[in-house]
Amino acid sequence: MGKKDPRVDAYIARAGDFAKPILTRLRDAVHASCPDVEETMKWRFPHFMYRGMFCSMASFKEHAAFGFWKGTLILGGDSKNAEAMGHLGRLTSVADLPSKAALAGYIRKAVALNDEGVKAPRAARRAAPKAVRVPADLASALNKTKKAHTAFAAFSPSHKREYIEWITETKSADTRARRLQMAIEWMAEGKPRNWKYMSA
User: What is the model's pLDDT at position 127?
Assistant: First the structure.
């Protein structure tokens, strides 16, 4: 018999209104297709365990995501993991989910892989990340605030890009200046760009 975790209930309750029905549908689908699944929280988001790692779901500010531990063996070329974390792409509404039958098929395939003891394929070695190009106004502001400079230097390339994109995507100089000031304040506190959306 499967096992639900009240921390997953709390996670769904805290998710954005758009995400609640998506996460609920995914959770129900996993339990329906794998009655012995057990829920847990890992890396601050819900995971489903069945004879080891199985699948997971997560909610972000503007989309939700769902992925299988052995996703490439389940979806192959149909995987949308280039669009978002997981294998189903950016999920912004229930309409973005595969049909109930297709989703159930994916889950049953994941069950079969775990029943057979198939190991997850090793990820291919990634090319070295491209150098992050810091715009002049951000570089200047960082040089004036030692704590922010130190934090930014320690961030991963993806965390650096999140700040850079947030600052440079603005349409007005006033908005850019406000974002730049806010970014420096957050970085001085050691916070990544999306710190508000990270679960405790």
Answer: 61
- The C-alpha angle 52, 38, 7, rounded to 5 degrees, equals 120
- Residue entry with tokens 């605030």: 145
Domain 6-115 has CATH 3.40.30: no
Domain spans in the chain, listed from the N-terminal domain onward = 6-115, 136-197
pTM comes to 0.59
Q: What is the mean pLDDT of each run of 10 residues along the chain (200 residues)?
A: 90 95 96 95 94 92 90 75 74 93 93 89 63 87 91 88 89 91 91 73
Determine the straight-line distance between the first and last CA of the chain, rounded to whole angstroms. 29
Q: Which of 170, 196, 50, 174 is nearest to 116 (CA)?
A: 50
Instruction: Let me know: does 35 contact 111? Beta carbons within 8 Å.
Output: no
The strand pairing partners of 1, in sequence order, are: none
